[in-house]
Amino acid sequence: MSSIKYILSFTFLNMLLFHFPFYGYVLEHIELSTFDGLVTFFIVTVALFVVNIFFLSLLALISTRLLKFFTIFTVFTVPIALYFMRSYNTILDRTMMGNVFNTDSGEALSYYHSSMFIYLFIGLFLSYVVYKIEMKKSKRVTLLKYGLGITLVGILILYLNASKWLWLDKHAKNLGARAMPWSYVINSVRYKLRALKASKKQILLPPATFTHPQAKQVVILVIGESARAKNFSLYGYEKETNPRLEKEDIVVLKNSISTATYTTASVHSMLSYTGSSSDSYEPLPNYLQRQGVEVWWRSKNWGEPTLKVAQYERASDLKEDCVGDGCSHDGVLLSNLMQKIKASTKDKIFIVLHTTGSHGPSYFEKYPKRFEVFKPVCKTVNIKACSQKELNNAYDNTIVYTDYLLARIIDGLKAFKGLNSLMLYISDHGESLGEYGLYLHGTPYAIAPDVQKEVPFIFWASKEFKKEKNIEALSFDKKSYGQYNIFHSILGAFEMNSTIYDKKLDIFSK
């Protein structure tokens, strides 16, 4: 068939086979039984048709081989994309594509269920069918005439129905994230362009001085993963998910909100002095290291900015010397940690423990067996197949394990008599467990439910730190908090003086 017929045929089949989530969203937000609803449905269909014709014609003008390759790529990858969209109710916007690019191979494998092989088989079969279709090259003038003509007619139809533009504009993000394959193709490009901009040389921050340069001090920042405040008994959850921390003298910062719903942006914002996820300034660990603080970063996760620190250790590095049932879980991050603190000769030590926490969908794999307190649990990545009770139990067990790890850190710091020490814990974002039909995280921030934004934020401080900062005189129940507090609070904890320090964002400042 000619290139023109190929483009038209592929467009119709693409809209017919691969746009169930797209039209499902449309039908949820219009009244199809009314004339106005029918017009809206027609306009959306025209817009989708024009987008397909325009881009496919553009590819054909460049090269028919490129067009053929792209259509084969489309029919192979779209079923896989639909698997994730149908399984977890995700949408493929720039945020979600950032999650895809920043997920390591081990975590990526946790999403796969045997049912995915059905989608994979469909993709392979359709790829073979499209590959076998013979396409004759059309003249570029003819391609341009048809492509431009259909596009202009579509634009004219949209123009004549300008009253529907407000509806299209209101739902553009959701529609764009469900249009196949443009959702993940275009948003992947958008994400990579933004990442490229962010990867430029870091802007160094101004120098700092210490009020008490010779005083021994240790600050540990524990970055949680997918932990939502709603499921912490410290925040009023009815199930006892924090049995150990409730016995500790800790401060719970309520009304704490994440700056994003995915790890990369959240971690960047908490380490940035501007509190932004997109600036080019050097992150907190690099800044502290440059000012003479010894910085250790231990990670069982990913998504951190480019780091220049004294020690950077992955879980695989720490596992060699790890002992106990937590070595395949976040417990590996505590391996020989207190021994190393004791052996250090440095006066100022900053440690970041980046956990894998409560990352789904394989919640049941995020804790050792003995922490399976709540039963029965969901033991499949196909979490839609589990009951709500099973899903909640599996997730809550991850919080129980986090509670245990934080209590261990506190006990370790308590053992250092006379040491000025501090532990802060904050999650990168929350998690959806089926509310509003959503699962996991990464929903665009503007429409994300509160459970993906409201995060636990707590700290424990030694007697020496409390005395130094006069903690007893501070109030922690009349403010809202967030990841933007981390940078300035840690500068304040170390008593660092710098022109970038903002005492209003330091939770330890009066």
Architecture overview:
By secondary structure, the protein is α/β, with parallel strands linked by helices. The protein folds into two domains: 3-198, no CATH class; 218-359 and 396-432 and 443-505, Alkaline Phosphatase, subunit A, CATH 3.40.720. The protein contains 18 helices and 13 strands. The protein has helices at residues 3-17, 20-28, 35-62, 64-88, 94-101, 105-109, 116-132, 140-160, 165-170, 172-176, 182-198, 263-270, 284-290, 315-318, 337-343, 388-414, 463-469, 484-493; strands at residues 209-210, 217-224, 250-252, 256-257, 294-299, 311-314, 348-354, 420-427, 432-433, 439-440, 457-461, 481-482, 496-497. The strands form four sheets. The chain has a seven-stranded mixed sheet, with helices on both faces. Strand 9 (432-433) and strand 10 form a beta hairpin. Helix 1 packs across helix 3 (35-62) and helix 5 crosses helix 11 (182-198).
Main beta sheet strand tally, sense and closure: 7 strands, mixed
Can you tell me the CATH topology of the largest domain?
Alkaline Phosphatase, subunit A
Q: What is the topology, as strand order, of the major beta sheet? A: 3-11-8-2-7-5-6
Uncertain segments of ≥5 residues (pLDDT<50)?
A: none
Radius of gyration: 26 Å
Average predicted local confidence, pLDDT: 88
Distance between the termini: 75 Å
How would you classify the helix and strand content by structural class?
Answer: alpha/beta
What would the principal axes of the Cα set say about the shape?
Answer: elongated
Assigned CATH architecture of the largest domain: 3-Layer(aba) Sandwich
CATH superfamily name of the largest domain?
Alkaline Phosphatase, subunit A
State the name of the first-level CATH class of the largest domain.
Alpha Beta
Number of helices: 18
- Number of β-strand runs: 13
Strand content: 5-15%
Number of spatially distinct domains: 2
Proportion of helical residues? 40-55%
